[in-house]
Amino acid sequence: MPPTKLPPEHHIVRNVPWGKLRKDENDPEKVIGVLGEAFKMRPVEETLSTTWLEYFAGTRREQIYGAIRAMRASKLEIKSKSGFAIGNVGNITAVATAHNHSIRVLHEPKDDNKAHVAVRRWPRDDMTFFELLAAEAWSELVLNNHENIPKGAQAAPDQSAWTPPGAAAPIRNRPNPLTD
Amino acid sequence: MTRLNTTAPSRGKSYNPGPFLGALPLPSTDASAERWRMATRALVNPTPSTYAQCAPRPSHDVPLTERLFDALAAFKLKTAMLAAAHFNRDERARLFKQLDSLLDAESWDSADVVTTEASFTTLLRMVLFLGGRRPALGVTGTGNFIATWTEGNDRLTIECKPEDHVRWVLVQNLDGQRESAAGETTAKRLPEVLRPYDPPKRWFPHATDQAAA
């Protein structure tokens, strides 16, 4: 089965290490955003690795918790002072198109993260593009050590809470005719 | 291995910083010479014993914690050698706090190359040359420092590469219109290259004025 293309209104989350968070000039512990460098692929990455927010059920806050807990449960090295940048697929794609990058945002589950999304055709190096993402389209940030983020890790469920329009809902979300 | 130059600075001739910071920064007065020596002593005490006495080992043999510690020590020594006379105590403390935070082993991403002394040298020289507001710091995955200035939605980001090469990108908002620019140049040419843009004029006016002159 071909990988699912994420709808433009959905969101993806990328872990941002401490060194790639933008800090206040007068307080090195105060985070004010994300550096464009956060969106540069690592040498080992063939595609930009992210996690699908709407894969998780619940309110937006619960989806964010779900994505973070799933990333903590994966093989990713998530340090306590790292952050998670959240971006809208449509906005990211629009900025990419404006910079002549024809990206593809695809759900490509991995054994250690079923909500894994691979952003394909991502440029290896385009400082302006990365910085513009960090400034706006991919600038929403949640810190891993934020007091409101629950501790702990939990692998993403095998099946997405989201289903394409017209498709049958996943079994775990279908109403039970015997009880509902 | 970095060796600490403890030779007393010459006071025979007047201090000439030269066309750029290559001449930096032998102190020119007794007071500044003493300040430089004190700063150097403070920085190397305590000195990591292995850093000072052992020949460098291949990086893959050295645990990450040790590599970060050695890098941090090297950056502080470099600051003492290159910039002690140009940073007051508060500025030096501020820079060291930034470095301590950035190279903290608990927070460091082990997939990243530990930042290099060559990049740090470019950073120091650039910061001294620009003057004005000191930047916040970040790192690339390939061992370079990133210097950032931020004011509202205006942001200047500069990657410090070895041998005074810098890569910069500016995003600013003018009357609600977003404008971006990027380029690659040397630290020395940076004020001139950034002169047409507004935020750099606010952040390091002395350097941009000099470039205009």
Q: In a few lines, what is going on in this structure?
A:
The complex is a heterodimer of chains A (180) and B (213). With 180 residues, chain A is α+β, with helices and mostly antiparallel strands. Chain A is 19% helix and 24% strand.
By secondary-structure content and strand pairing, the structural class of chain B works out as alpha+beta
Count of helices of chain B? 8
Estimate the mean pLDDT confidence of chain B: 79
DSSP helix fraction of chain A: 10-25%
Q: What's the Cα radius of gyration of chain A? A: 17 Å
Q: How far apart are the first and last residues' alpha carbons of chain A, in Å?
A: 32 Å
Order of helices and strands of chain A: EEEEEHEHEEHE
Total count of domains of chain B: 1
The dominant shape of chain A is globular
Strand order of the largest sheet of chain B: 1-2-3-4-5
Number of strands of chain A: 9
Largest sheet of chain B: 5 strands, antiparallel
The protein's oligomeric status is heterodimer
SSE string of chain B? HHHHHEEEEEHHH
